[in-house]
Design goal:
Layout (H helix, E strand, L loop, with lengths): L1 E2 L2 E8 L6 E5 L8 E6 L2 E8 L2 E9 L4 E7 L8 E6 L3 E8 L4 E9 L7 E9 L5 E7 L2 E6 L26 E4 L5 E6 L7 E8 L2 E9 L6 E6 L10 E4 L7 E4 L3 E6 L2 E9 L6 E7 L3 E6 L3 E8 L6 E9 L5 E6 L2 E5 L5 E8 L5 E9 L5 E7 L8 E6 L6 E9 L1 E7 L4 E7 L10 E6 L3 E5 L9 E3 L13 E4 L4 E5 L4 E5 L6 E5 L7 E6 L3 E6 L2 E6 L6 E7 L4 E7 L8 E6 L5 E5 L5 E5 L6 E9 L2 E8 L3 E7 L5 E8 L6 E7 L2 E7 L4 E6 L2 E7 L6 E5 L7 E5 L4 E6 L4 E8 L4 E8 L4 E11 L6 E11 L5 E6 L5 E10 L2 E14 L6 E11 L5 E9 L3 E7 L2 E6 L2 E8 L9 E8 L4 E7 L2 E6 L4 E6 L8 E6 L6 E8 L2 E6 ...
Helix pairs in contact: 2-5
Length: 1127
């Protein structure tokens, strides 16, 4: 069955890299907003006290190059100026009444015959009158942000004409500087001035231009007669009253002012630094951020002009791409290479400044690599990414799950359990909490159903307060029960409720454990199990049985009568899982869990199946199915967390579920008869219960070591991310070793010489437990050696999984430096540590390795090698024989294999496929087909033998297909190299670093039997891929049928017809494949992000789309929901 060539591509986790940020009143004139750009996304926060609160976010049909805020006359809020990567710009404002973004202006600066710069430089003057941009070689564009002061009007897009410039209409002017490194619009209210830093004749120069929007746009004003430092790379416009510009290099910072051209004050920096960002605090202080994440305070002093510059070390934060001063000593540090932060500037008694972290925002970018694995083979998939750069490196553990949304927090320490009560209320509305601690019992009461306040009581009914509570609840008959170590108490559920009756253990004995249902209580006491009827306003002992072993856990399943009710009991020894009849406490069924103790047990019915769940002390949860005879069957185990789990029954979205409280809380549900495990976005949950009243309807309560959280579950599954710091190292490559359940991570650490700025790296191979993510050990590499690839593969008839590591090893210094590499072979020894089996040096960088034909294929620069023999008896360095097979590539940056097919993604030559004959030791690799387009590849992945997906540097993804094949699966024209057909292409807007087969959805989410039947009808095999990007986005591509593709492509057009894109940017042009060599319309891909906006359209808009497609709205909604489950 062939795989479909049509792809549904969608974002699971948006980009998190912050490229730019600005501050101002955008949403409300009384609020201060921070606006950040993250690739194709704008996120807006509101400053509340010392924190940033998310307020609004939206996507644009462009990669955002720069943003700035513009003051529009007569308006109390600011507008947002956005410039895209294709030089399309727009001006946006927020309509608070309609609660939507309005596009005020939209235009383009694109010059079709001009050569684009490597990066776009922009600067806005302090008065907000113009924006200057350097996007093309030899051209500067000026966008007027205010209307001209004199009468008259004339279009001036293109060359300067001498006529008046229109508001928001770009004016383009030629300049003689071709290699511009920086621009700055100076703070000069009397004469608009722009400074230009450029390279010419192997030197750096500084030039100033006057800007006159009602005449020729640029007039040369001044060129600094001497060169500036050659490492200069940034211009900082200095606010008034000083004015002028700071020229920042790696060793010096110089101040220049065109009014006094001879005024140059140079400050020697403390060390060699590369400044990446800045923000001014007033006109005398400026915070600088460098490429290592260090923040400095630059202090300017002088009378009319700057005559002294002083630099002070502030502290370490993330490597910043932008800095924004938020007032009140708060500073926003936006980062593309680590977590963004809010820090506070503080000073000591000696007036020395430093920083303290206040708030952190998770950033996954750049994701250099990732792996996918199913730890217990139960369909619960985990993704682990290597994220961040240099000392901001980390592992990010990503799982698909549900989000807990807080309604309230009760800060209480030492909570062991919580039980809701309904006191003097109708309809069992909860208004009290029994909180059990080691020291005793506390009770909190919500006196007013409209108030969030809960008051602690010193007495309630006949409850005991001086001992812990095992269980408490309000019964269906209106009574209330409490079980403590000293007694079982039954009382009226009222404030002054008197005790109806109690049960006490024999003198000198205590109750060790208890569980309560609506009609029964089962407790463990002095080696006995006792069942008590509490459902008839009385306490009646039903049965008593002496047990052979100590009880570890209890759970009741009520039936129609006591003879149909059961208790499951966990024991510390023997047959440690038993189901007993409540009526007699005789064993009905039993099982043994070897080398483990049941710590929590639960009966629960999910869909039409009954289950017994058993939680063990090591974080594992077992489940059995139960038939009508209460017989256990189909035992299975999954790892939930690393510590003991407690199990709780509840319902979510009308369906029964199980909540697993642990260090990694999880919800278990059932879909089409199979269990689905959904992670929850919380950590270290110790307990769980339900709480329901008018103020907090259908709420869930989660217990932590420090508080009780009240909230509810978000019905939409999302990705939840956990950070594992790498101790100032950067993660480069990662692989999963299934046999040992271990993660292998190649890391590096950067060292910079403070005297000369020279950088060196040290590399390691780390091993992490894939269950606990604890580090198990590390392997040192040679000096300056770094990991470039990791692969897990068996060899020939040996079923052991070996670990192969490819490296780069620089040799020599300066101009004589050459890059070699090594292929290292490891296995896991008895102590669960990596043991080196062999190491072979190769003449180049080992960029990629993959299992292939029961061995290993290795990409070394442009050469392909094959592991032909392995002789364990030989000396170290002689055990592996790597045979060079082919050299047709520039650089084999990525590869993938399936059966006898090898696919290579080349640095410049797109995708090629190869085959190795049946005698690999002597046979060459044969190139079967290739894509003749020029694509600079970053990743490649095989969908099936004849369909491959690749990603390239210009932010595109594309699909190629092998030429037609005959019935024997042989390529027609085998003796000739064939041309692959491009059957899909799509501009993603972000650079993909890695593509891998798999999904983060549970196996059941792929669609089950219904989808398999549909796939067979279409004669197409379902497939799913995951990808990760430079900007920290995670996405998926899944195969869809041709019929679905045809319907969804029409649906895209209709959605765009009823909903004008923000910024009025051309969607077709945005998604077109373009790489500087060719530009072609998108095909073969469906934009899932756009399709899923259908669910957010108004009913009227949805109806228009459905009518145009002649498809019912419900059918479209079901189709989108099905596609979201497939991912």
């Amino acid at each position: 069955m062939a795989a479909s060539r049509y792809s549904y591509i969608t974002t699971l986790h948006p980009a998190t890299a912050v490229h730019g940020a600005v501050k101002g009143s955008f949403l409300n004139p009384n609020d201060v907003n921070l606006i950040t750009s993250k690739g194709t996304r704008i996120e807006i926060y509101t400053v509340v006290g010392e924190t940033l609160v998310p307020a609004l976010d939206f996507n644009l049909h462009c990669r955002v190059a720069s943003i700035s805020l513009v003051k529009v006359q007569g308006r109390s809020t600011l507008s947002l100026f956005v410039l895209g990567d294709q030089q399309h710009f727009c001006l946006l404002r927020y309509d608070a009444h309609a609660k939507q973004i309005i596009t005020e202006a939209s235009d383009s600066m694109e010059e079709k015959n001009a050569r684009p710069n490597d990066r776009t430089l922009t600067s806005q003057d302090a008065q907000g009158t113009y924006m200057v941009t350097s996007a093309f070689t030899g051209l500067l564009s000026i966008v007027p942000l205010v209307s001209p002061d004199v009468k008259g009007k004339g279009k001036s897009h293109g060359k300067a004409t001498g006529r008046l410039a229109e508001k928001y209409k770009p004016v383009v002017s030629k300049v003689s500087e071709f290699n511009i490194k920086g621009i700055a619009a100076l703070d000069n209210p009397l004469a608009a001035t722009v400074a230009v830093l450029f390279e010419e004749e192997n030197a750096m120069w500084l030039k100033f231009y006057h800007i006159k929007l009602d005449d020729q746009p640029l007039q040369h004003m001044l060129t600094i007669r001497s060169t500036v430092e050659f490492t200069s790379h940034m211009l900082l416009p200095v606010p008034q009253p000083y004015g002028g510009v700071l020229v920042v290099g790696e060793y010096t910072i110089g101040y220049y002012n065109p009014i006094h051209s001879d005024t140059v004050i140079v400050a020697q920096s403390m060390d060699a630094i590369v400044v990446t960002s800045y923000t001014f605090i007033g006109h005398q202080k400026c915070v600088l951020g460098d490429s290592l994440g260090v923040l400095y305070l630059l202090t300017l002093s002088g009378s009319n002009f700057v005559d002294e510059v002083h630099i002070q070390y502030l502290g370490e934060a993330s490597i910043s791409s932008c800095l924004v001063y938020l007032d009140n000593d708060l500073l926003y540090v936006g980062s593309m290479q680590g977590d963004s932060k809010v820090v506070k500037l503080v000073s000591d008694e000696n007036a020395r400044m430093s920083i303290n972290d206040v708030q952190e925002f998770a950033n996954l970018s750049p994701i250099t690599d990732f792996c996918l694995f199913d730890l217990d083979k139960q369909g619960r998939h985990t993704m682990v990414c290597t994220s961040g750069v240099h000392r901001d490196g980390s592992l990010r553990v990503v799982q698909s799950g549900l989000g807990f949304l807080e309604r309230a927090v009760m800060p209480i320490f030492g909570v062991q359990n919580v039980f809701p009560l309904a006191i003097d209320t109708e309809g069992r509305q909860h208004n009290a909490l029994v909180v059990s601690t080691m020291a005793g019992t506390r009770v909190f009461h919500q006196a007013d159903a409209t108030s969030k306040a809960m008051v602690e009581l010193t007495a309630l009914a006949d409850l005991e307060f001086n001992v812990p509570t095992f269980d408490a609840r309000t019964l269906a008959n209106g009574d209330m029960v409490q079980v403590t170590p000293t007694s079982l108490r039954l009382m009226k559920a009222s404030y002054n409720g008197i005790m109806v009756k109690q049960w006490q253990p024999p003198a000198g004995a205590v109750i060790m454990m208890a569980v309560v249902s609506d009609n029964y209580c089962v407790l463990s006491c002095v080696g006995h199990l006792v069942c008590i009827d509490i459902g008839h306003h009385d306490v009646v002992e039903i049965s008593d049985r002496k047990m052979d072993h100590e009880v570890s856990s209890l759970s009741i399943m009520e039936g129609g009568s006591v003879s149909e009710s059961y208790v499951t009991v966990g024991f510390w020894h023997g047959d440690n899982v038993q189901i007993l009849s409540l009526e007699t406490l005789q064993t009905k069924e039993k099982a043994t869990v070897a080398n483990a103790v049941p710590h929590s047990m639960l009966f629960q019915k999910l869909e039409d199946k009954r289950y017994l769940f058993v939680a063990l002390g090591d974080g594992k949860v077992m489940h059995y199915t139960l038939n009508e005879q209460m017989e256990l069957g189909n035992q299975s185990t999954i790892t939930i967390g690393t510590r003991s789990v407690s199990l709780h029954a509840f319902a979510i979205h009308g369906q029964n579920a199980v909540f697993c409280a642990s260090d990694r809380p999880t919800i278990i549900t059932s879909v089409r008869g199979r269990l689905v495990y959904s992670a929850v976005n919380l950590k270290n949950i110790t307990g769980f219960t339900l709480f329901n009243n008018p103020l907090w309807p259908e709420s869930l309560m989660m217990m932590t070591d420090e508080a009780i959280l009240v909230g509810y579950m978000d019905p939409i599954r999302k990705l939840h991310v956990t950070k594992i710091p790498l101790e100032n190292k950067m993660g480069r490559r990662i692989a999963y070793h299934a046999e040992s359940q271990t993660l292998l991570v190649g890391t590096s650490q950067l060292h910079r010489d403070p005297d000369n700025g020279r950088e060196t790296n040290t590399g390691w191979i780390h091993q992490y437990d894939a269950k606990t993510f604890q580090e198990l050990g590390k392997t040192d590499l040679k000096p300056r050696e770094l990991v470039e690839s990791i692969c897990v593969a068996p060899l020939w008839d040996d079923f052991q999984q070996y670990v192969f590591v490819g490296t780069v090893l620089p040799k020599g210094e300066g101009d004589k430096e050459k890059h070699f590499g090594r292929v290292l072979m490891f296995h896991f020894g008895p102590d669960h540590r990596l043991q080196l089996l062999d190491a072979v040096e190769v003449p180049g960088v080992v960029y990629a390795m993959k299992p292939y034909k029961n061995s290993l294929v290795v990409g070394v620069n442009g050469f392909l090698y094959y592991l032909t023999t392995y002789r364990p008896e030989a000396a170290l360095g002689e055990r592996m024989t790597l045979t060079r097979k082919l050299h047709t590539s520039v650089l084999a940056v990525d590869m993938d294999t399936i059966d006898d097919v090898l696919v290579v993604g080349d640095y410049m030559q797109s995708i090629s496929s190869y085959k190795l004959d049946t005698k690999p030791a002597s046979a060459p690799l044969v190139q079967v087909a290739r894509d003749f387009n020029s694509n600079w590849m970053t990743a490649v992945q095989i969908v099936d033998r004849h369909l491959y997906i690749g990603a390239e540097m210009s932010h595109n993804v594309f699909t190629v297909q092998m030429p037609a094949i005959d019935a024997d699966d042989k390529v027609i024209g085998r003796d000739q190299m064939l041309r692959m057909d491009t059957v899909g292409q799509f501009h993603l807007g972000d650079a993909i670093n890695r593509i891998r087969t798999g999904t983060l959805g549970d196996d059941i989410d792929k669609g089950g039997d219904e989808d398999e039947e549909m796939a067979e009808a279409d004669d197409q095999a379902p497939w799913s891929l995951m990808y990760a990007t430079v900007n920290g986005a995670i996405g998926t591509m899944v195969g869809i049928s041709e019929a679905d593709y045809d319907m969804l492509i029409r649906m895209q057009d209709q959605i765009l017809a009823v909903q004008t894109p923000i910024g009025k940017m051309d969607y077709a042009a945005w998604r077109s494949f373009r790489n500087g060599v060719r530009s072609e319309p998108a095909k073969g891909f469906i934009d899932g992000d756009l399709i899923e906006t259908f669910l957010t359209l108004s009913p009227t808009q949805q109806a228009k789309v459905a009518d145009a497609l002649t498809v019912p709205i419900t059918t479209l909604q079901a189709k989108i929901e099905k596609l979201s489950q497939m991912r």
